[in-house]
Amino acid sequence: EMQHLASVVAYNQHGVPRLQWLRDAEDDRWNRFKHDGNSLSVDSWIAMVHGLQDAIETALRRLFFDRQDLFAEFYAPGAGQEISDDPTNDAYGYSLFTDVRNEWVFPDKKRDRLLYAVSMDASLSRRFLRHNRSGETRLVVTSCREWLSMYSEFTKLCLLFVVLAGGGPSRSTELTAMNYANGRDGSLRNLMLFGKSLCLIKTYHKMAARTGLTMCVPDALDARMTNVMIQNLAVLRPFALHLVNAVYPGDLAVLDTYRTKLFPQKDKLADATSISEGIAELSTEWLGVRLTLNDVRHIIIAIKHKMLDIFEGEDEEEEEEDTIDSRLALHSL
Q: Taking a C-beta distance cutoff of 8 angstroms, is the pair 260, 184 a contact?
C-alpha cells in the first residue's frame, strides 16, 4: 500500500522546468532557449537536422555507386496514376512497395535493378561477383559485408533523423522496432501513405497500462526524406536482401529483419545505445552540447508547442490564460 501511495504521489508531481524560452531582442522572436543551463536556438537545431539530411543523401548516393540513373522514378505519374496504400491490410510482408496497384512505379522486373547494374558493370562485377568453373555465379562475401556495413550506417542516420526531426518522439524501443512492411508476428507497418504524404506512424505505449490504449503519433516526412525512404526501400533493400543471404546464409531471423524492419543494423536492430551515441555526436558537432535521447525528447516537445503557439497567433491574453500546470507538463517555461 505504501508503494502504491508513493506512485500516486509521484504521478501527480510536476517536474522542475528544464527549458526556458528567451525572446530575441533584435528580431523580437522566440528563437533562443536554455536547456539545463545550455544556450541553444531553434535555428541551430534546424541547421543540425539539415546537416543530417545532407549526410543521409551523401550515404544514399554511395550505396547507389553514384548511379542516379538507378533511382526509382515516382515523381511524375501519368494521368490517373497515383501511389496506392491500404492501411487496413495486415497480411505478412504487405507494404506500399508490394501493393499490386503500384506495379506502374515499383515493377517486379525492376526490383533487382541494382543487382543487375552490378552484374553489367565490369568494375562492380569484379568486386561483388565470382564465377566458378561450373558456370555458377556467387556473391563475394567480403564485398557484401562492406556494403551492408555502409547500409547500416545509412539506416542509423535515417533513424537519427526520425528522432531529431519528429514532432512526437517515441521511446527508443518503439523507434528501433518500426516496420516498413507487416511483420510475421502480426506487427503492423509504421510507414504509410496518407494522401500524398509519406508518414511514419509512431506508437507510444507509456500510458497503455493505465488507459488500455496505445497512442499513435503520425509524422509526415518532408520531400527530401520521402525520396530517401522510397529509394531505400524500393531499390536498396532488395539488393540488401541478396547480400544478407550471402553473408548470413540460413539465418531466417536476420532475413526477416531486412524484409520488414525500417532500421536494420547488420544482423540485428539498432538499440538505445546506438541512438544515444549518434545523438551525442551530432549535438556536440552542431550545437556544442552533448545531448541524450531524453534531452532531445524534451526539446522537441517544447519547440513543437512553442512554434504551434506562434503559428496559431498566441497573444498576451492567451499567455495569461495559459496555466503554470500546462507549462510544467512540457518541462519548459
A: yes
- Other CB atoms within 10 Å distance of the CB of residue 8: 10
Strand order in the sheet with 38-41: 19-23, 30-35, 38-41
The C-alpha cell at 104 is: 506502374
| The three grid cell numbers given for residue 76, joined into one nine-digit string | 511524375
What's the predicted TM-score (pTM) here? 0.84
* Single-letter residue type at 9: V
Q: How many CB atoms within 10 Å of residue 328?
A: 15
Sign of the C-alpha dihedral computed for residues 55, 59, 61 and 62 taken in this order: positive
- Cα 110 off chain centre by: 25
Specify the 3-state DSSP secondary structure of 269: strand
3-class DSSP state for residue 140?
A: coil
d(CA 179, CA 222): 19
What cell does 232 get?
531505400
Q: What is the pLDDT of residues 50-80, one digit of tens each?
A: 999 999 999 999 999 999 999 988 765 555 6
Which of left, alpha, beta for 212 (phi over 0: left; psi -120 to 50: alpha)? left
Residue 291: CB atoms within 10 Å: 21
